[in-house]
Amino acid sequence: MLAIYIFITLVILQRIVEVMIANRNAEWIKRQGGYEAGRGHYKFLVALHALFFVSLLIEVTVVDSRFVFWAVAPLFLFLLAQICRVWALTALGRFWNTRIMILPGAQVVAKGPYRYLRHPNYVIVVTELACLPLIFQAYWTAILFTILNALVLSIRIKVEEQALEDATNYQEVFKKKRRFVPTYED
């Protein structure tokens, strides 16, 4: 059981470091003349992710979580998502953020996984929220937060795409790219 708590704690620490990076990147974008879009829904995104970890910790404590062989599949997908997360964050560099930060006139990033789809980071988050609980048989957390995340992302993506279309070359660069399914055209 201790190993489960250590694993989840490491993921939480990763998220805390990411928020620190995001805050630093947001300040840089603001200094360049950028601004935040969609501020109203951000608190729901933060609450969703915080409650996800609370729910996960409660469920793994209440449910008799132990290693089962099939858990290797969601563990593999979760670890693959971590590699893809680093790829996506590295590709965006200072433009990566947990908030919707817009720098008017900037050229949108179309390298790394962004060469293939518009929102690789959201695909990664969806994968993580589904797979992490499944590793520990926390089925209720997996189901509930997959649904809640879909609701929040349905709002966030529309706001993000509109803000990017209004202030950058987003439409031009991503007109042939799908949101979540890779395309391999250049």
From TrEMBL:
InterPro entries: ICMT_MeTrfase (IPR007269), Metal_cation-efflux_comp (IPR052527). GO terms for biological process: methylation. Gene3D superfamilies: 1.20.120.1630. The chain crosses the membrane at residues 6-23, 44-62, 68-88. It is found in: Membrane. One of its GO terms (molecular function) is methyltransferase activity. It is a multi-pass membrane protein. Its main location: membrane. Keywords: Membrane, Methyltransferase, Transferase, Transmembrane, Transmembrane helix. It holds the Pfam family ICMT. PANTHER family: BLL3993 PROTEIN. This is Isoprenylcysteine carboxyl methyltransferase family protein.
